[in-house]
UniProtKB/TrEMBL annotation, chains A, B:
SUPFAM superfamilies: Winged helix' DNA-binding domain
Family annotation (PANTHER family): TRANSCRIPTIONAL REGULATOR-RELATED (PTHR39168), TRANSCRIPTIONAL REGULATORY PROTEIN (PTHR39168:SF1)
Protein name stated in the entry: Metalloregulator ArsR/SmtB family transcription factor
Cleaved signal peptide residues: none
Species annotation: Pseudonocardia adelaidensis
Domain HTH arsR-type: 1-93
DNA sequence: CGAACGCTTTGGTCCGGACCCAACTGTCGA
DNA sequence: TCGACAGTTGGGTCCGGACCAAAGCGTTCG
């Protein structure tokens, strides 16, 4: 069981800057190198070195995109190690009921910067595609169909100003908590903002979101609207 | 979720000698400092330093006993971290069915040096105490009652030579896999040896033991013997 | 009692690797 | 085409901490 050599992995993890990077990535989303350097409190050059070692060690994967290099955890097993460590980190053996509940809320629904993520985020994207409101235009970007434009208008989001912003409109965003993508960009941000306004979602502690009891019913009603 | 500071824990784990010590302790039993030094391949003085840091960090607990200092993992959460790391250590994503089965066998029954441990080891001690075959003489040492001497004789173990060895007779031995103790010492070693001879147990790969299909029935029959 | 043993403490050496600076490559937007 | 920006590479410094030798301390056993 423990005949494997843990030393390389242990030394890889065992550096303050690298564990800070891993912890940041454990939040779930992919982050560019500069941001990770900032969070770890080191010079970008230093972060580059650390990231290379983490990638070589198979703990992190990179996704090059223009002049950015987005990094995320290589898989749920890496996250499992970090979670096990988090369980142990402080000498506070009992986790309060409050934090346990928050943890559950977090995988259920949460914000990723400013848009809906977690299980509900994945679900929302699925439903919008299924309802024919969204259409994939390449392997990660989406656009609203005419049906979609009508639907978001119905719920109180004006699609026109969203077209004119520089921001990405609706792009797939994957994190390790769910293996499937949710949406990032101007559209999901506006939509999430509106759903909170309408009370379908409520802000909870931190990035958590509480889902209204009749959220499912409202979502069904909305997406089946003529 | 990850707002805890993982750096101290990570740097504590992230040393070749210390992870070797932890991996050795993850096997389950308590080990003296010298043995850990040998396994980690460092000088005893070096091991002492590492062990102090591990104890201070709450990953390991010591149990002083004469001129020995026995160390074991501080709890199942520490073991969980090591297990999560072991899942990740080599780039061998698939664990063979064989090793999975071995893992299960190991918690069910295994040898600890030369005596029965695992769930069946705990069970055996419980049953012997319950049957009045064993009696606690202090907080960790046991002796055979007259009933017990008769019982072990019935199963084919002669208790007399066991009294004359220098070895501890029957002492509680705790590891992290089960929170309850099993027995170490001359008696359990002889008993385990005999149960293997009788086919109640069979040696499996490594320290694993396979339990015969009719083990429970035989154990019941034996301990309820007049 | 004295010797052997297990372990710790102290003291001093030394090397790996973490860090930043500065220069360079590649990308984006005007 | 040019400047701003993201990130990497190479070079050089420096400090933490890993290591062992030797001495010290308590335990065990003859």
């Amino acid at each position: 069981m423990f005949d494997r050599d843990l030393a390389p992995l242990a030394t890889l993890i065992g550096d303050p800057a690298r564990i800070a990077i891993l912890a940041a990535l454990a939040e779930g989303h992919a982050l560019p190198a500069g941001e990770l350097a900032r969070r770890a409190g080191v010079h970008p050059a230093t972060a580059t070195g650390h990231l290379r070692r983490l990638v070589d060690g198979g703990l992190v994967v990179v996704h090059e995109q223009g002049r950015h290099r987005y990094h995320r955890l290589a898989g749920p097993r890496v996250a499992a190690v970090l979670e096990a460590m988090a369980q142990l980190a402080p000498a506070t053996p009992v986790r309060s009921l409050r934090s346990v509940r928050a943890g559950k809320t977090l995988t259920e629904a949460r914000t990723c910067y400013d848009h809906l993520a977690g299980r509900r985020g994945v679900e929302l994207r699925d439903r919008l595609l299924e309802a024919g409101a969204l259409r994939l235009i390449d392997d990660r970007d989406h656009e609203l169909t005419p049906t979609g434009r009508r639907l978001v208008t119905v719920v109180g989001v004006d699609p026109h100003p969203l077209d004119r912003t520089r921001r990405v409109f609706a792009r797939s965003c994957v994190d390790w908590t769910g293996r499937r993508p949710h949406l990032a960009g101007a559209l999901p941000a506006a939509l999430t903002h509106r759903l909170i306004e309408l009370g379908w979602l409520t802000r909870a502690a931190g990035r958590g979101l509480r889902v209204a009891p009749d959220y499912d019913r409202r979502l069904d009603a909305w997406l089946s609207a003529p």
